[in-house]
UniProtKB/TrEMBL annotation:
This is Glutamate pyruvate transaminase. The keyword Membrane does not apply. The keyword Transferase applies. SUPFAM superfamilies: PLP-dependent transferases. It comes from Thermothelomyces thermophilus (strain ATCC 42464 / BCRC 31852 / DSM 1799) (Sporotrichum thermophile).
Length: 485
């Protein structure tokens, strides 16, 4: 289509699949919240709030989560190895511990320089360290050759979906509600998202009958369903899957020959029960029934962006492959090679995440103190937010289980739905926009993640410090309900 501006590209002739993709966590409300933030920084006094709370995205250090000292000290040396020439100054005057210097030397020996490319799948010594972590975590060995470093988990998801999706008929089962990375990526690939609903009445657990029905419906429509995505602990729901749910998904994947994509980036953010990895459960099932599950293909992902580390901006992550055809794995290596390699400083950060200071080492006491303080702070704020929701009319929310999010149900008056329609918005979008305008708190409408027809939700993080902003939500909600009841 010709452009009147004389430019070659216009909104009508660019890739339509990119245009069609939606990514709500950085959508309209996020843009508006940044406009408010800029206005406040420029001295605006006409807004009904004094700060913007970005509860729309899991970005811990933007919300004042402090970096782990051990990690940042090691990184500082990796970025400037000349500091090692002044090791006595670092230790005696700047608070560095001797094991910080030793770890930096070890990583520098492994990568040479963080300014140099690594092998496409990541530095061998770092992948070895991850394999050792996985063996400690799961009780089963891991092969460094099956581990691929990535620029955060998002890059790993992009790689895997590119390999899995051959054409528009390639389908991937995606949980609803879900982190919109998956639907957006499938849209860009012009592949088919096959949604399956999580069960809110079972703490957002998986329901095998629902998954099976979604799978059968897609197959009947000619979709070649190839994979199933599981986010555990959940985003946006915060759910932590029990063993029986994980076993059921693995058995279903065996029956239907589905690749399992296990997004496990919140594995340390578990408040109730324990995190059980899909790798551990698969290996256990293979041990229990030799030969039955040998052809399961599992890709599990992890990242430095979440957990207690919260180093989103460093873009470090990895994925591990289990049971993939060697020829397919060679194509995955080729795909990651196109981007040369994941950021090497991010790779080093992954190594520090999976191999932290151990008891008895000089940095351990401060490390565990900082780690536990972050974990306890997250749990306390999640609990405070949950208690606030309990006192809000028409709001229902399960007890916080994990990750960094709550996903409450909201029941709004018909007048609010009518006012939303008049603005061309869904009721949850309307509600969240009014909340932002009244309080400066930016959350994400449930429609951005998917929700059952007839239900409304919003997702909020519980990363922001303090509780004043929680009180402002309670006050806003009462006034909103009174206005539209």
């Amino acid at each position: 289509m010709a452009s009147n501006s004389g430019r070659r590209l216009n909104i009508d002739n660019i890739n339509p699949h990119v245009r069609a993709a939606k990514y709500a966590v950085r959508g309209e409300l996020a843009v508006k919240s940044e406009e408010y933030r800029a206005a406040l920084q420029n001295g605006a006094t006409d807004l009904p709030f004094k700060q913007v709370i970005s509860a729309n995205i899991g970005n811990p250090q933007q919300l004042d989560q402090k970096p782990i000292t051990f990690i940042r000290q090691v990184l500082s040396i990796l970025e400037n190895p000349a500091l090692l020439e002044k090791g006595d100054v670092l230790v005696n005057h700047l608070g560095y511990k001797p094991d910080v210097l030793e770890r930096a030397k070890k990583l520098l020996a492994a990568v040479g320089s963080v300014g140099a490319y690594s092998p496409s799948n990541g530095a061998p010594a770092i992948r070895q360290s991850i394999a050792e972590f996985l063996e400690r975590r799961d009780g089963f060995p891991a092969n460094p050759a099956d581990i691929y470093m990535s620029a955060g988990a998002s890059s790993g998801v992009n790689t895997l979906l590119h390999i899995i999706c051959a054409d528009e008929k390639s389908g991937v089962l995606v949980p609803i509600p879900q982190y919109p990375l998956y639907t957006a990526s499938l849209s860009v690939l012009n592949a088919t998202c096959v949604p399956y609903y999580l069960d809110e009445q079972k703490n957002w657990g998986t329901d095998l009958a629902t998954i099976r029905a979604a799978h059968e419906k897609a197959k009947a429509e000619g979709v070649d369903v190839r994979a199933i995505v599981i986010i555990n602990p959940g985003n946006p729901t915060g759910a932590s899957l029990p063993e029986e749910d994980i076993r059921a998904v693995i058995e279903f994947a065996r029956q239907e020959r589905l690749v399992i994509l296990a997004d496990e980036v919140y594995q340390t953010n578990v408040f109730i029960g324990e995190f059980i990895s899909f790798k551990r459960m698969l290996r256990q099932m293979q041990k229990e029934q030799p030969g039955t599950y040998d052809n399961i293909e599992l890709a599990s992902l992890h990242s430095v962006s979440k957990g207690m580390i919260g180093e989103c901006g460093h873009r470090g992550g990895y994925f591990e492959l289990v049971g993939f055809d060697p020829l397919v794995q060679a194509e995955i290596y080729k795909f990651v090679s196109i981007m040369l390699c994941a950021p090497v400083i991010g790779q080093c950060l992954v190594e520090l995440m999976v191999n932290p200071p151990k008891p008895g080492e000089p940095s351990y006491d401060l490390y565990i103190q900082e780690y536990n303080a972050i974990f306890n702070g997250l749990h306390e704020r999640a609990t405070a937010l949950h208690k606030a929701f309990e006192q809000m009319e028409g709001v229902e929310c399960g007890v916080p289980q994990g990750s960094m999010y709550l996903f409450p149900t909201i029941k709004l008056p018909p007048k609010a739905a009518k006012a939303a329609a008049a603005e061309g918005r869904t009721p949850d979008e309307f509600y969240c926009l009014r909340m932002l305008e009244a309080t400066g708190v930016c959350v994400v409408p449930g429609s951005g993640f998917g929700q059952k027809e007839g239900t409304l939700h919003f997702r909020t993080t519980f990363l922001a410090p303090g509780t004043e902003w929680v009180g402002s939500i309670v006050k806003f909600h009462k006034e909103f309900m009174d206005k539209y009841r």
